[in-house]
């Protein structure tokens, strides 16, 4: 890898950086003649400015628009196709997704304890752009907000039920007839899906992007990670393919989350206000919230995304505290440490990719989750990279791995633990019998102030919806603008609208299975891309000056 030293010129503008600041202090810039945006098409028509990477934007947008049109036009015909694809991919490739996720986590953890962790993102003298409070809020809200609302009650309860029954979908074979063991196994399996593995995936992608953009002077786009492998070819078709795959993965990963959010918000509104819980309601919700998200997109990261993220964190924290103090407080307090211990104890067995006898669990849950997180990784990784300049690699990895994992354990313990306690101790089976998207509201219905807490839950889903949409629009716009981080705002509006259109198409074309199939299908090729990126990140870190 050709490099040129950046020290005395650290504070001079990095020509062609298009919004990416030059390294502050010693860093090793990659010596390339490529200028960010040199392959872009720039125009202004009817007062609307455009600045697009011609090939990446054109191919991505045309293929996605074709997919949306076909899915909406042939709803009845595409549903069986989605079902067959989902069964084939999860039934044959669950081991591959599990193995790949293990590699990402191991690499992230190992890097913390190596001298490479002393490298500072943005140059040796860089300082953080955001406070810890703002940083953590954006990490968490962008990472998995809607998912925690949708699965916080339903997943622990589902794994508890299958473990107690000992059926084919039980994790690790279940614990038939043993309520205590089934509850612990159910919580361990849930935390496995929301703990170190998803955040290890995000951390590797985010660290790679931040390193090659802020320290190496390359565009903030997925292709830049592969410069150590492809060299100058990264600016040609090999790089175009990588960025196009990143766009597909990000859009379908986001669409899955938006679809889940719409179904839960619709169910919650029906539960509270008896509104129709139909596809029409979900489509209206997606359209309405997408329009609200456009305002946040246009306001930018500092004013829009950060403020909404902090608002959502405050609301989520209040709802979490309410459940802890009004629900089975002692059970939740002790359960946090018991579940943490159970997670650590069962982690080797749960993450084993080979010779598993619980194929119903690995294929129906884990393979889908890992593909979902990998599809989300360009979006979450690029967003985390944008807000993490100035952190050391060690500080970055510890924060990205541990803080969200611990919060996820507390969240699942509070919401899932309360629901399981309602079934076991109170004999309330309504929460267990409710549809997945209704189980959160059914659990809250057994606690005081039901109307208020359920309404807060709906608002949380909607605001998580908005933060995911606007963050995703910023990221996809950067990829399709050749790595520019300050491209014209109409492009962000276009991608926010496309996200909503894909979510609508998938919901109408097959519901939850269609959403899951889209994630698995786009996550598969991108997993291969990320495995190759693991080599590039090590090579990139080894060339950087390290602090003391």
From TrEMBL:
Region described as Disordered: 1-26
Family note: Belongs to the BCCT transporter (TC 2.A.15) family.
Membrane topology: Multi-pass membrane protein
Keyword list, A-Z: Cell membrane, Membrane, Transmembrane, Transmembrane helix, Transport
Residue spans crossing the bilayer: 56-75, 95-113, 133-153, 196-214, 235-260, 280-301, 313-337, 367-385, 397-420, 440-466, 493-512, 518-538
InterPro entries: BCCT_transptr
Compartments, record wording: Cell membrane
Molecular function GO terms recorded: transmembrane transporter activity
Record carries keyword Transmembrane: yes
Lineage, opening ranks: Bacteria, Pseudomonadati, Pseudomonadota, Gammaproteobacteria, Oceanospirillales
GO cellular component, one term: plasma membrane
Superkingdom field: Bacteria
Protein's UniProt name: BCCT family transporter
